Amino acid sequence: MAFRAKIILRCAEGKSNSDVGRELRCHRGSVGKWRSRFIAERLDGLHDEPRPGAARSITDDTVEAIVVKTLESTPRGRTHSSTRSMAKNVGLSHSSIGRIWRAFGLQPHRTESVRLSQDPLLVEKVRDIVGLYMSPPDNAIVLCIDEKSQIQALERAQPVLPMDIGRPERRTHDYIRHGTTDLFAALDVATGNVIGKCFAQHRAKDLRAFLREVEKQMPADREVHVVLDNLSAHKAPTIKRWLLQNPRFHFHFTPTHASWLNLVERFFGLLTEHALRRGSHTSTPQLRAAIHEYLDAHNEDPKPFKWTKTADEILESIARFATRTVVAHREP
Questions:
Q1: DSSP for residue 167
Q2: Is position 187 within any domain?
Q3: Quick check: 125 and 253 in contact, CB under 8 A?
Q4: CB 303 within 8 A of CB 192
Q5: Are residues 144 and 215 part of one domain?
Q6: Above pLDDT 90, what percent of the chain?
Q7: Which residue segment(s) compose the domain that 11 sits in?
């Protein structure tokens, strides 16, 4: 209906069928059809005509009852409904339940993790960091720094069977541990370039050593704004002393439990997906080599992550979630 209304509005501007078709990416015959039906029947002409076939056997009231039951109740002894348990409960087929759930975007089998920040400076920190992403200071570099800790060097218990025609790669579910490494990474928000280095641990002195490496690669005439989380090592005395010695570096801390505000976390996700999850490494040196190889390949053609949500949109989304949570758990 919305698309047909767009056709009529474009036609009302005096455009030809061909022009409207090109603009809305549809055939000019379709434009002519809805133009003529609107002229003959006005708004009623935009509705579908009656179609052949059996009448609906599931009424609107039944659909509403199923949606309400899905949202507000669960089967006895279970945490969530399935299509078959709901079908047994309401006397319909499980395929009908599946169609209704898909139509309303209901997915009882899925769950996601979430943790609201209780930081008293949540609003100020969100506005500060999003402002750095969307409107960075002039003559300054914005870096996102974090650690990906405890990356395990895992060797599959048996050799991996490579992919073949009609057969996916196969590997054992069990593995042998060969130690861990910690990756420090600094993502340049403007260019997408990543500076990375592996350490045995992620202590404050390791962070200081990494910051020295980063400082060497930054142009001497530029201010550097660093986004990082609230790990105790980031606020250690040795780091505070380093900041006093390097006044062009400015730290911006994310709210507690809000690591999603740090763009380098997205890079860590790509690293895990592309180089770590399916890897088989017999030692930590081999794991470090794989990580640095991925970093080198990434930096050959870096692409920045574009932040699109404004601070107001983020805060409004948090407020809606908090309100719904409170209402859902309010005592009757």
A1: B
A2: yes
A3: yes
A4: yes
A5: yes
A6: 62
A7: 2-46
